[in-house]
Amino acid sequence: MNYFPMFADLRSRPVLVVGGGTVAERKIQSLLDAGAEVLLAARELTENLQTWAEEGRICRIAESFSDGLIRQAVLVIAATDDEELNRRVADAAERGNKLVNVVDRQELCSFIVPAVIDRSPVQIAVSSGGTSPVLARRLRLQIEQLVPQHIGLMAQIAGENRESVKRQFGSLPERRQFWEQLFAGRFQDYCTQNNRPQADLQLKAELAAKQTQQGFVTLVGAGPGDAGLLTIHALQAIQAADVVLYDALVGTDILCLIRKDAEKINVGKRAGGHKVRQEETNALLLEYAQKGCRVVRLKGGDPFVFGRGGEELQILAEAGIPFKIIPGITAAVGAAAYAGIPLTHRDYAQSVQFITGQCKADGSDVDWASFARSNQTLAVYMGTIKAENIAARLIRHGRAADTPCAVISNGTRQNQTVATGVLSDLQCLTANAATPALIIIGEVAALHHRLAWFQSENTAVAKAKAA
Ligand code: SAH
């Protein structure tokens, strides 16, 4: 850690600014916002600075800088376009043991100023340690989009009620649970609407109810693999969870977004490699929710697409446990996009069917004639094992043997691979495919060769070999 992060209380504390141009003005504006007493040493002032000095908002103590001025200040900022002068200010501050910032000259600074996301009283500061202010500002923009505007109001009300909540709930875990539930419920909605009176009432009501905390389950779609494909709601739910029950399909990139102190339970595979039975997963969900935990059930892709999400929710509904659902990008949508295969296309496919390859051995549970119709795309989940069977039945029901096909393994992940061929070869295409793999059948699969854009590690290796 090159810099010690801190938030300084500058209210009524003197800060010396050397320089009276636009850069100095910007710095002074933030110092005034923070309530600092600004002492200015500058020969020429911008129009605004002049007005502020006349109004007494800042105090121009000198026209030119001299070492002695340093003594009066707790912090020093040099913002002139005179390199030599900036250096003199920095040296004098060093000698006088004052922290100094020289604008745009990191090597002369003993403190630097972060990019700030301001939701006062909440402030988030971002710094690249002086290596790249542009990068820090980019990151700030990204965080800016993630942090809701009303968070400031929430913090303000929370601050005012901190003591009464402390009195009511003796232990830290109890208090944490109270705040977490408050922030996730109606209170948040009222804050979003900037409805302070209702937000206050809601807090008081929840505090008065002193109810035993009720658990809550959020069924979250984690998407096909690339963590960037999570929705903002999904990210927020993952980070608020006390317990996360996740499937084998959810990768480490996403698991590392879970709060460090949350309990993580893999219900996809046990240590011995056996799958946890669905009934056990259901029982775990119930158990944690009934204990009052905020549970996230994290599933690959979308929870309602071949995800058994419906079954898990039925159990919760029967037990009277509240829940909500956050959809995810399903494998067919994600993998097709990253493979450059449009699922529909005006010239080739007017519809797309998402189907499962896990049908009965005799195929009697499937309407093969409808699957075999032309001008449509089939996206087959869990289809690699029965690929031969699926291809044979489709051809028998009239789909052309030379219909283009693609098998996308590890779609959207860094190790994505795409194998293409025709329907009569589907078995060969899937034989060595890594899992999870999705099969796409239809003319659109041939567009992969023209529209592939995603550079996975494997594309890079294949290109290097070819070269
Ligand atoms: N609920 C999930 C699907 C679960 S069924 C979703 O909406 O995506 C599991 C099947 O999904 C796998 O057998 C495979 O066919 C497909 N699948 C899931 N993730 C995949 C990925 N990253 N790449 C290719 N196929 C994937």
From TrEMBL:
Keywords, in A-Z order: Cobalamin biosynthesis, Lyase, Methyltransferase, Multifunctional enzyme, NAD, Oxidoreductase, Phosphoprotein, Porphyrin biosynthesis, S-adenosyl-L-methionine, Transferase
Domain Siroheme synthase central: 119-145
Region span, Precorrin-2 dehydrogenase / sirohydrochlorin ferrochelatase: 1-203
Keyword ATP-binding: no
UniProt GO BP: cobalamin biosynthetic process; methylation; siroheme biosynthetic process
Reaction(s) catalysed by this chain's protein: precorrin-2 + NAD(+) = sirohydrochlorin + NADH + 2 H(+); siroheme + 2 H(+) = sirohydrochlorin + Fe(2+); uroporphyrinogen III + 2 S-adenosyl-L-methionine = precorrin-2 + 2 S-adenosyl-L-homocysteine + H(+)
Domain Sirohaem synthase dimerisation intervals: 150-207
CDD domains listed in its UniProt record: SUMT (cd11642)
Modified residues annotated as Phosphoserine in this record: 128
Catalytic residue list: 247 (proton acceptor), 269 (proton donor)
Domain of life of the organism encoding this protein: Bacteria
Single GO term (MF): sirohydrochlorin ferrochelatase activity
One Pfam assignment: NAD_binding_7
Gene3D superfamilies reported for this sequence: Cobalt-precorrin-4 Transmethylase, Domain 1, Methyltransferase, Cobalt-precorrin-4 Transmethylase, Domain 2, NAD(P)-binding Rossmann-like Domain, Sirohaem synthase, dimerisation domain, Siroheme synthase, domain 2
EC number: 2.1.1.107, 1.3.1.76, 4.99.1.4
Binding residues annotated for S-adenosyl-L-methionine, in chain numbering: 224, 300-302, 305, 330-331, 382, 411
Tetrapyrrole methylase domain span: 217-426
Binding site for NAD(+): 22-23, 43-44
Pathway(s) where this gene product acts: Cofactor biosynthesis; adenosylcobalamin biosynthesis; sirohydrochlorin from precorrin-2: step 1/1; Porphyrin-containing compound metabolism; siroheme biosynthesis; siroheme from sirohydrochlorin: step 1/1; Porphyrin-containing compound metabolism; siroheme biosynthesis; sirohydrochlorin from precorrin-2: step 1/1; Cofactor biosynthesis; adenosylcobalamin biosynthesis; precorrin-2 from uroporphyrinogen III: step 1/1
Functional note: Then it catalyzes the NAD-dependent ring dehydrogenation of precorrin-2 to yield sirohydrochlorin. Finally, it catalyzes the ferrochelation of sirohydrochlorin to yield siroheme.
Family designation: Belongs to the precorrin methyltransferase family. In the C-terminal section; belongs to the precorrin methyltransferase family.
NCBIfam families: cobA_cysG_Cterm, cysG_Nterm, PRK06136.1, PRK10637.1
Stored HAMAP family: Siroheme_synth
Annotated protein name in UniProt: Siroheme synthase
Species assigned in the record: Neisseria elongata subsp. glycolytica ATCC 29315
